[in-house]
Amino acid sequence: MAIQQTFLMVKPDGVERQLVGDIVDRFERRGFVLKEAKLMTISEDLAKNHYAEHAERPFFGELVEFITSGPVFAMVWEGENVIALSRLMMGATNPAESAPGTIRGDYATTVAENIIHGSDSLASAEREIGLFFGK
Ligand code: RTP
Ligand code: MG
Predict the structure, then answer these.
(1) Burial of residue 62 (number of CB atoms within 10 Å: 0-12, 13-18, 19+)
(2) CATH number, residue 41
(3) Which sites are catalytic (predicted)?
C-alpha cells in the first residue's frame, strides 16, 4: 500500500462544538501527518461542487445549507492507507450506526450533522484536495 493523501473536513457542527483539536489529535496519534489546514466558510458554489455526486438526492438542499452555515476546518492528511483508515476512524455516515470509539460514534446522533467529512476514494481525494487547496 502506497502513501496516500486524503481530504478531511470538520463540518460546521464540529467547529461549533470545539472538536477541531480532538479530531486533529486522533489523526496525529494514529500516525498520519497534517499537510495543509485552514478555517474557512464554504461558498454555495463550492458546496454544490464538493457534493455534486448528491445533486439529485432529496437532502441536497439541506446538505448545502448546512455545510455553508458556519466555518469548517479543511485539512489534507498524509499516510499509509489514509483514505480508508480515516473513513474507519470517522465511523458510519449515519451516527445511529457508527461504532463507539469512532468520531461520529462518539460525538454525533443525526446523519444531517455528523461532524466530519472524509474523501471516499483516491479519485475523490484528488478532486477534493484540488477543490479546497488548489492543487
Ligand atoms: P461525507 O461525504 O460528508 O464525508 O459523508 P459520507 O461519505 O459518509 O456520506 P455521503 O453518502 O457522501 O453523504 C454525504 C452527507 O450527506 C448527508 N446525508 N444526509 N438526510 C439523509 O438521509 C442524508 N444522507 C446523507 C450526511 O451529512 C452525509 O455525511
Ligand atoms: Mg461522501
Answers:
(1) exposed
(2) 3.30.70.141
(3) 117
